[in-house]
Design goal:
The chain is of the alpha/beta class. The protein has 5 helices and 11 strands. The chain is globular and about 35 Å long. The two termini are 17 Å apart.
């Protein structure tokens, strides 16, 4: 399956998104043929991090969260990084954007600490997912079922625990419609 003709949003938090959790999925989805739009709290540039605190490279943010809607996209990628995920989950527009992908039954891929946004958007109840282990209690408290697996798919939601799991996530998973 290719992603030709598909438009995927990927979130990027300023000084907080983990570099491999942003770069690897972005490159994989682009290689599969999709157009990727980087969405951040504001347009311009954002710095990624390594190991939550070490500075990383700078990447362009194509659109500010206030300039986009889920209706424009075929899927969403939510990278992790505890600092980045925490910054993103504190923004109502980001949470509304994430929520709308679930309302519209569009595929969503989430990595590491990214499920914090799903908890905030109140979309984990009754779903099975994975994450970085320290997010497991939040997922359970929100009504989700946390499992310690490399990759978990549930009704159009694809989750992974950390950057080491990313090779197990095929880009085409992002386009599988909820069952």
């Amino acid at each position: 399956m290719t992603l030709e003709g598909k438009k995927i949003a990927i979130l990027l938090a300023p000084r907080g998104t983990e570099k491999p959790e942003f770069v690897q999925p972005k490159e994989a989805v682009e290689k599969a043929g999709a157009t990727v739009v980087v969405v951040g709290l504001e347009a311009g540039e954002a710095h990624v991090v390594n190991n939550d605190l070490d500075p990383g490279a700078t990447y362009a943010v194509d659109k500010a969260i206030g300039e986009v809607s889920a209706a424009e996209f075929d899927g969403l990628v939510v990278p992790g990084g505890s600092v980045g995920a925490d910054k993103l989950r504190g923004d109502e527009k980001v949470i509304g954007f994430v929520y709308d992908f679930f309302v519209q039954e569009k595929p969503v891929g989430v990595i590491c600490h990214g499920p914090w946004l799903l908890v905030e958007a109140d979309v984990v109840k009754g779903r099975m997912l994975t994450s970085f282990p320290t997010v497991s209690t939040d997922i359970r408290n929100a009504g989700g079922r946390w499992v310690d697996q490399e990759v978990v798919t549930d009704k159009g939601l694809v989750t992974s625990r950390n950057p080491k799991d990313l090779p197990g996530v095929a880009p085409d998973l992002l386009l599988r419609r909820p069952a």
